[in-house]
Design the sequence.
């Protein structure tokens, strides 16, 4: 008997899913898990396919998938028997994840939230360092862009800049099938405290 089961008919992920708790945000901050989720936004994949794409062992991959599934960032969308085992296909639950800071603030302190968000920047810095020390030097390295600016913006212009940055990143979300993996990070926050 050949059993092939589609777990959820709606295989397409939602447009946006909120991140409502600190634990979920902490799970998603990890670079390897972020790569897994990014691939699963594009299409359903099995652990075998993910391991081959990412160049990591399946045991380690299952650890990441379990965490992502527990936090409802990915889900099983299909199961089928393969050589006496059940093979699962996973899919991200959304095409984008947005931190609901107001909801997070009811469950975690501002310093905890800021520390976790800074962890995302730390993970990006670690990826950049790994690239430099991992022998990935080539002509494309001239395209590495890291910049920092301090701007004085009123609330209207700060929101406008935020919207434009997100729209620009969203414009490239689908990527190019033959393109190279490219990491993009965006951080925008006020630096003044207590109205100073």
Sequence:
């Amino acid at each position: 008997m050949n059993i092939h089961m589609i777990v959820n008919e709606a295989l397409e992920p939602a447009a946006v899913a909120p991140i409502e708790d600190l634990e979920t945000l902490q799970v998603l901050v990890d670079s390897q898990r972020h790569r897994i989720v990014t691939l699963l936004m594009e299409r359903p994949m099995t652990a075998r396919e993910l391991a081959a794409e990412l160049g990591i062992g399946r045991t380690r991959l299952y650890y990441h998938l379990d965490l992502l599934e527990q936090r409802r960032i990915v889900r099983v969308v299909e199961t089928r028997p393969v050589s006496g085992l059940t093979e699962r296909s996973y899919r991200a639950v959304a095409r984008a994840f947005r931190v609901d800071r107001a909801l997070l603030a009811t469950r975690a302190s501002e310093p905890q939230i800021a520390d976790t968000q800074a962890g995302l920047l730390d993970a990006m810095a670690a990826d950049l360092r790994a690239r430099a020390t991992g022998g990935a030097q080539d002509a494309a390295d001239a395209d590495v862009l890291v910049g920092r600016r301090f701007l004085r913006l009123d609330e209207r212009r700060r929101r406008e800049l935020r919207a434009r940055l997100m729209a620009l990143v969203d414009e490239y979300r689908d990527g190019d099938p033959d393109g190279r993996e490219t990491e993009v990070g965006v951080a925008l926050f006020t630096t003044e405290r207590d109205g100073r």
Summary: The CA atoms of residues 20 and 104 lie 6 Å apart.
